[in-house]
Design brief:
The chain has 192 residues and is α/β, with parallel strands linked by helices. It has helices at residues 3-11, 32-45, 60-72, 131-142, 161-167, and strands at 13-15, 19-21, 53-57, 76-82, 91-97, 104-110, 119-127, 146-156, 172-181, 188-190. It starts with a helix and ends with a strand. Bound molecules: guanosine-5'-monophosphate.
């Protein structure tokens, strides 16, 4: 088991509805030492790629992305969730359906902060059905930039997102892949 899998075993809580709660160390209270280890691991896994920007989505991707960015020495741009329908032409826009909140959000990135010169590493906390990632990929593509890779803390391997994104040909690196979990027993099974 790697450092993140060990932490999930120790502090993760399996909830009904295929939700893994990791709010004591990942997405509410945040363990920055753990994020730092994640940053070092992503740096290794994406070695040699010409990454000059990290893109993530608010809210829970931001903390991880910022610590990862220290390892790559690049800026972070986060896609903002916006309820407004009147989005002007200065923004890239994508529609994202939230797995946890079961609602649709438009996410936006200013054209000032993403362009064809950008070689992007996308970072997020969870991968479930892949909707958030597809939105971020479409924004980078619309900007004319290049997605060099995708780094995820926790992938839920029993949901379709991982397969969909890998089939599109992206280098997707998830530090922990949960292949099964049971809310009744609390048992969590990781991919070997
Ligand atoms: P997707 O778009 O891949 O279906 O879902 C990804 C987003 O939903 C992540 O950014 C994350 O915020 C949230 N999410 C999905 N599954 C879980 C989960 O099991 N636990 C938590 N805490 N968040 C999740």
């Amino acid at each position: 088991m790697n450092f993140l899998e060990e932490r999930i075993m120790k502090d993760g809580i399996v909830k009904e509805g295929n939700v893994l709660k990791v709010d004591s160390f990942l997405n509410h209270q945040m363990d920055i030492g753990l994020f730092d280890e994640m940053g070092a691991e992503f740096k290794k896994r994406f070695e040699g790629k010409p990454i000059n920007k990290i893109v993530t989505i608010e809210a829970s991707g931001i903390g991880i992305a910022c610590v990862v960015a220290r390892h790559f020495n690049v800026p972070v741009v986060f896609a903002k969730k916006s309820k407004s329908i009147n989005i002007d032409g200065d923004m890239y826009v994508a529609e994202v359906e939230s797995f946890t909140h079961k609602c649709k959000n438009q996410v936006i990135v200013s054209k000032k902060f993403l362009g064809e010169e950008d070689h992007v590493l996308i970072i997020d906390d969870f991968l479930a059905n892949g909707c958030a990632l597809q939105g971020l990929i479409s924004i980078v593509n619309e900007a004319g930039g290049t997605v060099e890779g995708i780094g995820i803390a926790i992938e839920k391997g029993f949901q379709v997102g991982g397969q969909v994104i890998r089939n599109l040909g992206y280098q997707l690196e998830s530090l922990a892949i949960v292949d099964g979990m049971d809310a009744a027993t609390g048992k969590i099974e990781f991919r070997k």
